[in-house]
Amino acid sequence: MKKLLSVLLTLAACSAALCLTAAAAQADKLAPTRVWGKVSPWDGDGVFLKNDDKDDHMNEVVVHVGEAPVVDAATGLPLDLESVKEGDTLYAWIGPAATMSLPPQVFAKVVVGNVPADAKAPEYYELSSGGWKDPAGSDEIVFSYRDAEGNSQDLPVPLDAEVTPWLTRQIIRLDDIRPGEHILVWRNEKDVVTKVLVFPYAYQGYAAWSTIATGVVNGETVSVPGKVLPGKDEHEKIHLLPVRAMAEAAGYSVSWDKNRGAVVYDENTEVVFYVWPGDDVLWTPEGEVTISGPCVLEEGVTYLPAEDLCRALNLYFPTD
User: Fold this and answer.
1) Whole-number Å distance between alpha carbons of 280 and 36
2) How is the beta sheet containing 315-316 ordered, strand by strand?
């Protein structure tokens, strides 16, 4: 019985780790999920939240805050987590990675507390587009984000909404907000956005696959065309982007090393990654990273699958 229990515990731990790894690999394809509840007694690390919604599969959850911003909903300023008491209500937006323990343990992207009794809790978004003027009304700018099911949704923001950056005095406007931006949004009783809090940009820049089959970095088309190759079936296409052109457009430098292949450096000449033609892995300072297809070398140009290259360069790259 002891041996059986030991085996079961080991399998449970392995399953939890696999769940965490698989979920983390899909993190950039899923919208952040909101959990909430009252702070409850807990002996371990993290904050234990419980709510009374029995239909909520996350009605009991342990949130690990780490370095995530903790925001006072009443002021938009930092909230001291040490001041939060048992019974206080907190809201947290989390990534898809979660342990299979009971209660599940999750990792916060942002935490919000001190929501006034007569107000709605603000909402957290990662934007999949910059803003554009709504043809039906020029008094607002419309952004896009992906919902929990991965569907694109519009987020209209009035031009007179208050826009502030997190923890800086920098002046920021709605026109400055880029794809990949993380924001917290307050709405009034009519569900109209009144305030936008913009967090520090988490990416080196943003990228896209253009209609002329090449890459775009920070709104500018790169000089070297991409490639589209057939996939495993007739409906599948593999989109490749040039490593040097994309990396240099994003502010990196690139050289060729006879032992390592294409090597990408940051502004401090530290290696970001290197890759050898034909390989389906990247080598980074943190270790080996598997990519979705092999590195291709044609006519002196090194190509990588678009999504993998943008991830390696820390470029926001919206996915379908």
Assistant:
1) 41
2) 220-225, 214-217, 205-209, 315-316
User: 61 near 42, Cβ under 8 Å?
Assistant: no
Domains of the chain: 2-121 (2.40.50.140), 125-198 (no CATH), 223-316 (3.30.457.10)
Please state whether beta strands 182-187 and 152-158 pair in parallel, antiparallel, or not at all (unpaired): unpaired
Give me the residue label for tokens 């698989």. 22
Helix (H) or strand (E) holding 302: strand 301-305
CA distance 317 to 157: 23
Intra-chain end-to-end CA distance of the chain, in Å: 48
> Which candidate, 195, 1, 15, 166, places its Cα nearest to that of 101?
15
Q: Name the 3-class secondary structure at 42.
A: coil
Q: What is the pLDDT of residues 139-197, one digit of tens each?
A: 999 999 998 888 899 999 999 999 999 999 899 999 999 999 999 999 999 999 999 99
The pTM (predicted TM-score) of the whole model is 0.84
Asked whether the beta carbons of 297 and 228 are under 8 A apart, the reply is no
What is the sign, positive or negative, of the torsion defined by CA atoms of 99, 151, 37, 73?
positive
CB 228 within 8 A of CB 239: yes
Q: How many CB atoms lie within 10 A of CB 276?
A: 17
